[in-house]
From TrEMBL:
Keywords for this protein: Hydrolase, Metal-binding, Nucleotide metabolism, Zinc
Binding site for substrate: H21, D23, G176
Entry similarity comment: Belongs to the metallo-dependent hydrolases superfamily. Adenosine and AMP deaminases family. Adenosine deaminase subfamily.
UniProt protein name: Adenosine deaminase
Catalytic-site annotation from UniProt: E206 (proton donor)
Lineage of the species this protein comes from: Bacteria, Bacillati, Actinomycetota, Actinomycetes, Streptosporangiales
Amino acid sequence: MNDRPSLEDIRRAPKVLLHDHLDGGLRTETIVDLARDGGYGDLPTTDAGNLRTWFTEASNSGSLERYLETFSHTVGVMQSAEALTRVAYECAEDLAGDGVIYAEVRYAPEQHLAGGLSLEQVVEAVLEGFRQGRRDHGIRVGTLVTAMRHQARSMEIAELAVRYRDAGVVGFDIAGAEAGYPPTRHLDAFEYLQRENAHFTIHAGEGFGLPSIWQAIQWCGADRLGHGVRIIDDITEDGDGAPKLGRLAAYVRDKRIPLEMCPTSNIQTGAAKSIAEHPIGLLRRLGFRVTVNTDNRLMSGTTPTEEFAKLAGTFGYTWDDLQWFTVNAMKSAFIDFAERLELINEVIKPAYAELRGER
């Protein structure tokens, strides 16, 4: 049995990605091209290699707010339909090349209107890029439209998600700095989505603690939690040193609420100190529905393969563990049950069996 995953073997393994930001995964060569063609003159450097280094270094501050500042440059060059389609296509191409068979990629349409596009034109441009990516590379990408939690357009974006849900938009999200902007500020949007039988996730428990998670679930009805790292604050030890779950942590585990964890990004934003100390290790042992994600591949200098490799190297994970994470993600995707089941039984499980040397 080949049970010690190497980086190249992990790259060949089928992977499922649920938390990846479109404006956080651009190629730096593309940023330079789009800045030149679109007249965006604020880049710190126009050398693609140096720009990649700048993004990585600027993202390692340990502050979520500072981390989010890096997006001014990627969003700045994504203000035309052509740019959005190109970025979406290259995202699909890059993920497919890394072994991803299904991905949900999110972006905030309201951030791409400076060039005169409408919300609908933004959505259609992104969907076109992912359609081309599926045609050329075979990867299915569902999009999540995101509302910014410090703005007041969440109902408008929620309606956009419902309007395009049969065209490739699979769900809704809110993102941005958590502190001072609780999810309950957007309660009307979440209630609308529930009435429309629509899926949504909420960034919660990354830059803020348990109250953010509690509100996202119990007030807003989130299907999944974006990050959810701070659920660890509701897990203590009993007198014998065994983990003891508080009421909220037990509820999250019992209800099988998916946690969209992004280990490298969580360290950069200060939500975790290191891979070894990341809550994902304990949460996996306790049987929470944990998934492994990239968040922002450019800012974090990472890929789905590298996230898995870091976890395998740190926690000694085997193919069984990596399959468990992958199946968790596929079960938690916002596409129909039959398609999820088909990918699990006909693609994921056979491929991992082969990687284990079972066939």
